[in-house]
Amino acid sequence: MSISTPINEQISDFNNWVADLQTRMESVLDAQLPATTISPMRLHEAMRYAALGGGKRVRALLAYAAGEFCGADLGKIDVPAAAVELIHAFSLVHDDMPCMDDDDLRRGKPTTHKVYGDAMALLVGDALQSLAFQLISQDKLLKSATQKLQMLHILALASGSRGMAGGQAIDIESIGIPLTREELEQMHIHKTGALIRAAALLGAYSADEPDQEKVTAIDHFAKSIGLAFQVVDDILDAEADTHTLGKTAGKDAKNNKSTYVTILGLSAAKQLANELHANAMAALSFYGREADCLRHLANFITQRSF
């Protein structure tokens, strides 16, 4: 996708790229998840229910875009991208449970605990998380042990108390308590941003010898776009309906949670999303057409409804 290509053609090319890789990721996940014929069959059925057939695969797309930017072969990005999607799926299963956000709808269908029960949903999340690390550790296309260890470290850090789990803990403890903008930002850097950053870095490190200047640019890009993703989510929760979101709309306000909309107001939240988008673009300003997919993903994330 050349920057000299007419904008309509660029968008068409990007849309085709997204559709192709969403289909590819579905196939990779289908192949890597345990079959329902293998014991324990109901657990494996529930894992597949949670991980397949839904979502925009934004984290996988970020991994692919960052990997292509750094010169990685597409096949080498498959497993790291799938691992991030499995971690994301596990987080959604647990996040939807009665002890967390207690939601009935996810990706346009009943949440895992509504279909399989709370106990099984808990195990589904645990098993999806474990599978993510297993896939990277046994990936035969990643020849370097150092490369695998680096990826495992990135994914573990993004998933644990200093990443996604830590952000969720802050979220739970903050229900009904007004947060400052700085406190809200710290929560979402952990809860949402950490895994988005990990997705991009795993893609970058799928290359055998990634250019460190490109890795630094990707890191800066992902930090901005990860926070922008959450700002847009807050805006969508305030503006969109349940059918559009594929999950229950308006739950943040109902649960008395601080959001960028409640703290800044709708107009200022949209302005912040635009500023973060500009920061992400600036991180790629020294690069040409090889960064186009990352640029288009930044547009896709920040402009998906407004």
Give the arrangement of secondary structure elements.
Elements: H1 7-32, H2 41-51, H3 58-69, H4 74-95, E1 105-106, E2 109-110, H5 112-116, H6 118-138, H7 145-159, H8 164-173, H9 181-204, H10 212-239, H11 242-245, H12 251-254, H13 260-264, H14 266-283, H15 292-302
Helix pairs in contact: 1-4, 2-6, 3-4, 3-9, 3-15, 4-6, 4-9, 7-9, 8-9, 9-10, 10-14, 14-15
Output the number of helix runs: 15
Q: Strands across the major sheet, in which order?
A: 1-2
User: Would you tell me the overall average pLDDT?
Assistant: 92
Order of helices and strands: HHHHEEHHHHHHHHHHH
Residue windows where pLDDT falls under 50 for at least 5 positions: none
> Structural class of the secondary elements?
mainly alpha
Largest sheet: 2 strands, antiparallel
What's the CATH superfamily, by name?
Farnesyl Diphosphate Synthase
How does CATH name the architecture? Orthogonal Bundle
The rounded Rg comes to: 19 Å
Helicity level: over 70%
- CATH domain class name: Mainly Alpha
- The shape is globular
| CATH fold-level topology | Farnesyl Diphosphate Synthase
The strand count comes to: 2
Fraction in beta strands: under 5%
Q: Termini, distance in Å?
A: 24 Å
Structure described in brief:
By secondary structure, this protein is mainly α.
Summary keywords:
306 residues; mainly alpha; Farnesyl Diphosphate Synthase; two-stranded antiparallel sheet; 15 helices; 71% helix; 1% strand
Description of the molecule:
This protein is mostly helical and 306 residues long. Helix 3 runs antiparallel to helix 15 and helix 10 (212-239) runs antiparallel to helix 14. The chain has one domain (7-302): Farnesyl Diphosphate Synthase. The protein is globular. It contains 15 helices and 2 strands. The chain has helices at 7-32, 41-51, 58-69, 74-95, 112-116, 118-138, 145-159, 164-173, 181-204, 212-239, 242-245, 251-254, 260-264, 266-283, 292-302, and strands spanning 105-106, 109-110. A two-stranded antiparallel ribbon has the order 1-2. The two termini are 24 Å apart.
